[in-house]
C-alpha cells in the first residue's frame, strides 16, 4: 500500500466530549485503507489559550504538539479551528525562534482538516461508493469561521455531503455567519453568544433540515446546545458521523 | 471621548440583545448594505485593487510626516491655516480659539466622528456657542440627546415612530411618521441654522497631500452648505486620514463609498482646501485644518497595530459583524464602534479601559474579509488580548483578569501531560454526574454556569477517544492487519 500513514490529531473536545466523531473518522479511513497512527500523548493544540491572549501557555502546548507530531507523514484532524491554529498561529508563535520556526512550519504543512484531506489529498468524490455512506434526510451545512475564512475550506465538505446517497443538502442563509461560540467568548459574554446562536438557529430552522452538519465540534456543540434547550428535534452532527453513517 | 454611560459592556449588551427593534434595524443594514458590499467585492472590485489600496495606505503611513508636511504646505499656499494638534484638548482648544476670534455664535457641524473623539462640542457650548448637527441622523440624535450607534447610519437604532414623537416634541410639528414629512421638517429647521451659522465644523473623509484638499462625502448636501455658507470652516482630521497622491485618493474614495453604502460615489463629494478665492461665488473667508494626533503616533510606532491606521472609516466591518449585529453601537460605549472600534478605541483611549471591547468579539474574521483595505482586525484583537493577559509596558496595560490567568496556567499544566489531562477529564466526569439529565448538562458548574443558562452542554463522554483507541480501534485494526 502506498498511502501515507495518517496520524490522527483528535482535538481535545472530540476526545473528551464527542469521541464518536473520532470513531467515525477512524472507520472512514479504515474503509479507504489508510494506515493510521494515534499518538497517545496528545492533549490540546493550545488554541483556547492563544485566542484568549495567553501566548506563553499556548506556546507550551504548541511546543509539545510539535514534539509529538513532527515525525508524522500526514496529520489529520476533524476540526477546522485546530488546523487553523497549527497552520497559521504556530509559525507566528515561533517567529523569533528560528529552530522552532522550521519545525512549526513543517508540522503546519503536513496538517490537514478531515474533509480537506479526503477530497484534496485522497481524491474522494463519491462517498456512497467509496465510503459506503448513506443518509436519509435533509442536511444543512454550517461554515465554521476558521475553516471557511481562515483555511478557505468551503467546497470540500459540500462536495462530500452533496454526494451522500439519500442526503439532500440545503443551504442555509449566511451559512458562514459566526454561531457565537468563539471559545471563551461564549463563557465571558454568554448573553451576546446566545443571541448570536439564536440567529444561527433561526437560519437552520428556516431550511427545514433534519440535521445541521459542520466540521468543527465546537460550533456544533454550541448550536446543538441551543437547539436542545429550545426543544428542537434538529440534530447537530459532525460531517464524519454522516459520512460514516453512524449518525443515522 | 464619548463615553458617558456608567454601565459595563455586558450590561449594555444584555439590554441591547433584548431590544428586538434594534436587532431588526441593524439586521436590515447588514442585509442590505453588508450583503451588497460583499457582492461588490466579489464582482466589481477585485481583491487586487483592495490589496493595492492597502499597500498605498501603508506606504503613505510610512512617510506620514512628509506627506502631512506636503498637505499642510499646499493648504497654506491656498490661504488656509493648518494646525497640528497633539492631543484632543489641544485640538478642541484651537477650535474654540478660532470661534472666539471670529465671534462665532452658532456652529453647524457635519461628518465628524473626530469631533466626538476630541469632545469639542461641550467646550464650545460652555462658551455659549450653539452647536448644531446637520447630518439628518446626527441631528435626530442631537435632539434626542443620544450618541451615534453606527459609523454611517448614526441613528439606525431609532425607528420612525420614535423620530416622529421626537420631532413633535422638539420641533413643535404635528406628529407624523411619514419619512418625507419628517425629512422636510428637519430640512426646514436645518436650513435656518445653516443660513445663520458663523462657523462650519466638519470632519474629513480623506485628505490629499498632492492637491492640498480635504474630501468630504455625504448624501444629503448638508456638508456642501456647512463648508461654504458660514464665514469660517474648520475641518478636523485624524493624522492618518491623508493620501499622498490624487491616484491614491481616488482609489480610496471609490472603496470608501462602496464599503460604506454600496455606492459607486456618494451623492455629494466636496473638495475643500482653503478660503474663497477672489472671483469665487462661495466659500468661507477663513479655512482651518486641524490635524489631530491624539495617540495616533503611538499606533504608528507599533508595527503590531500600524495597519489599523489604514482604516478609511467606511463602516463596512459593522455591516457584517455578528456581534455588532446583535448589540448595536451603544453597547461599545465609545466613539468608534463595531470591529474597528474594538481595535482602535483601546489604542486611543486605553487598553484596560476598553478591555471588554478587545475580548468581546469571536475572532470570526468576517470583518477582515469585508474591509476594503484588508485590515486584519482579528489579528490585532488577538494582540490586544495578549497584552491584557500579561500586561504591556509600552501601552501601559496591566493584566486584566487574575482568575483567568491562574486558570490558563492550570490549563497549561493539565495539557502538558496526558496523565494530567486524563485526571482532569476523570474529575470532570465525577463532578458532572449529578447534573447530567437526558444526556445533557442543564446547569453547568464554574465558568459553564453562565453558558448553560440558555444552552445545554454535552457531558464528558464515558470513554475518551484515547481510551476507545486503546480498547477498540487499535485492537481491531491490528486484527484486521493480521488477518
Ligand atoms: S476597518 Fe476596514 S471595514 Fe472597518 S471601517 Fe475601517 S476600512 Fe472600513
Automatic annotation (TrEMBL), chain A:
Domain Cysteine-rich: 7-86, 139-223
GO MF annotations in UniProt: oxidoreductase activity
InterPro entries, per database record: Cys_rich_dom (IPR004017)
Residues making up the signal peptide according to the UniProt record: none
The name this protein goes by in its record: Fe-S oxidoreductase
Pfam families according to UniProt: CCG
Record-level GO cellular component terms: cytosol
Spans traversing the lipid bilayer: none
From TrEMBL, chain B:
Domain of life: Bacteria
UniProt keyword list: 4Fe-4S, Electron transport, Iron, Iron-sulfur, Metal-binding, Repeat, Transport
Domain 4Fe-4S ferredoxin-type: 301-332
Record protein name field: Iron-sulfur cluster-binding protein
NCBIfam families, per database record: LutB/LldF family L-lactate oxidation iron-sulfur protein
GO biological process: lactate metabolic process
Pfam family, one: Fer4_8
Coiled coil feature spans: none
Gene Ontology molecular function: 4 iron, 4 sulfur cluster binding; metal ion binding
